[in-house]
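Changelog excerpt

This revision adds worked examples to the README so contributors can see how folded entries look when concatenated. The first example is reproduced verbatim below.
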Amino acid sequence: MKPSQPRLWDQTNFKSMKNKFTWGTGIFSAIVLFMILVGIMVFIASRQDRSLVNDNYYPLEKEYAAKRIKTSNFDALGESVVINQLTDSLQLIFPSTIADGSTHGKISFYRPSDASLDMKFVFQADKSSSQKFPLSGFQKGNYLLIIDCEKEDVPYYHEKSLIIK
């Protein structure tokens, strides 16, 4: 008589297979982990804000060439805007060549992360070529300062990033 072979469902064989980690187990575990990771990433991506920074983004893109001319006019001044954050206000010091009574335009503070925090002001430089804005209207964080003004039919445009602390 031949000794009988242990069957797969035999208790002794089951105990010896219990602790084996095979290629099949590894591949299955990797696929399951990958699927969990993809599921988490889809969940996170679906909760992100997908709004544009500006609601009129596409029409503004058509005005890009004019903006480049305005920017080159500002760069030709040779000076930049100086930003001073004081204890209770934000002070902008403009180049003296454009900061007089004949200059008109607007100053915008865009908050890239939240459009509801955007602010717009009229360009009103005082005799010292500066303009102050109360910090009470700002929240801490990153803003994009945009100056769009005109003096004697010469348009100027300048963008500068600033962080309110």
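The second example, added in the same revision:
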Amino acid sequence: MTGHCPCCGVDYNPTPGHDNTPSRSGVCTRCARHYGWEPTAEPPIWLLDIDGVINASRAGWSRAPHSTQVWSSMDRREYRIRWEPQLIAAIRRIHDSALAVVRWSTTWCPDITAVQDRLGTGAYETAFGDRPAHLVWAELKVRAALDVLEGGRRLIWTDDVEVDAARDLFPELGEAEKAGRALLIAPNPSRGLRPEHIDLIEAFCKEEQ
């Protein structure tokens, strides 16, 4: 974003985290913080899966995806992760600009630090930690999604497997989606999130509440 702050006149600096970055309240971050001009609605929580969403065999948008190996402490072995750097940059941009708060909702949560280091993502919170023996991962993911809505926040949930099943099993998710309080995306697991998904997410984040 180019231009200047209508409050203090300083030229905007697009670098995330800079005091002169434009805030969601329409002025620079420094003025928003100083005068308490924060948006009335909190940004959505984005529950973000990894396998089938970031990690996909054909994850590349315009060229072959990047690839690395990450150790799983649960399975005691390494797994190959393939990802699109432009997707990682888009996720970081959305989180750093406060359009949404990214929160990991993935079977990788117990080893998320290693994944973040390898992929170059931000250090985001996790929706859960280790899986209790009496629960399956799907239950943890659904509980995380419902908790976001019950807490009064809008929800973005990107998961290649659980989204469609949860929408059918839990009417409150479908109702929230129809009411504009939830954006549920189940990408093709072999391709992961694409540019059109990012466009949908950004548009959802910018909707007035």
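Reviewer comment on example two: The longest strand covers residues 66-72. The beta strands are 45-48, 66-72, 77-83, 101-104, 125-126, 155-158, 182-185.
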